[in-house]
Amino acid sequence: MVEEELQQLREEALKEIESLSNLEDLNVFRLKYLGKKGGLTGYLKKLKDLPLEEKKRIGSILNELKDQLEILLAEKEQEILFKQEDVLTGLDLSLPGRRPSLGGLHPLTQIIQEICEVFGRLGFDVVQGPEVETEYYNFTALNIPEWHPARDMQATFYLKNGAILRTHTSPIQIRTMLERKPPLRIIAPGKVYRCDDDVRHSPMFHQIEGLMVDKEVSFSDLKGVLTYFAKEVFGERTKVRFRPSYFPFTEPSVEMDISCVICSGKGCRVCSETGWLEILGAGMVHPEVFRSVNYDISLWQGFAFGLGIERIAMIKYEIDDIRLFFDNHLYFLECFK
Ligand code: PHE
Known about the structure:
binds phenylalanine; two-stranded antiparallel ribbon; 12 helices; 19% strand; 9 strands; alpha+beta; BirA Bifunctional Protein, domain 2
């Protein structure tokens, strides 16, 4: 009989604990069951009148019930305290933790890597050169003598010791040819500097130089390699065209356009209604350049090209202000993760 009563008591107590929602009720409950005049204590007192066997049996049931209630009460108390804290501090301790946000590569780094990989497939090595240059490597050896008006084409930063900041990556052509024997195929990404600053120009920007020298390299190799590059980077359906141009270090010289990535050639604001976007300068290496690095011009031929990374990135991602690349706003950078 006592067992049945106790079982009923347990069920009631468990239900009541469930519904407790504040510390006052919790204390009332504690007194009601476990206090000096509480339900369980009453039974414990009655134990002494029972025969030994029953005393043991009922006693252990009572102890177990008491332990169970105490554990549940302690848990309930924690729960109530946590909730109170949440209300006070605005914390919801049941929320999952925040993941640390991972960084990503800068969009320019991504483009440089992508382009290096495309040319890597064609057997081009990646090389580098210094950003502080001499006028010799940056101009003279590239067939731009001192009196040449082309020196003014690129607004140069002069340093105190007579050195300059390179205005293009072309001096790397000279350094590489002096270091290596032909044949060679290289591309050279890097920072370049020009005294220029507006929404499309930054005083520091990035170029990739390309150079291929071999016994039989013709203008059609130039066209083939650069067309492959354009399709890989801007998509298979991209069209290209070559326009005659002028650089002192190439002859003949060209500029390459791609069909506008926005309107596919129909004409829009981005391509100034022409359907074309200019993306790089190129040409066959000028014999004077080969002479300055002592390559035998009766044996060797080559083509070179140079492209601006920011310009490629602005076209590819439809970005209209070059300064976004250098402001380091996270909301911009996170778009490229
Ligand atoms: N160096 C040229 C520039 O910065 C680009 C170029 C490189 C053109 C190689 C032809 C060949 O404008």
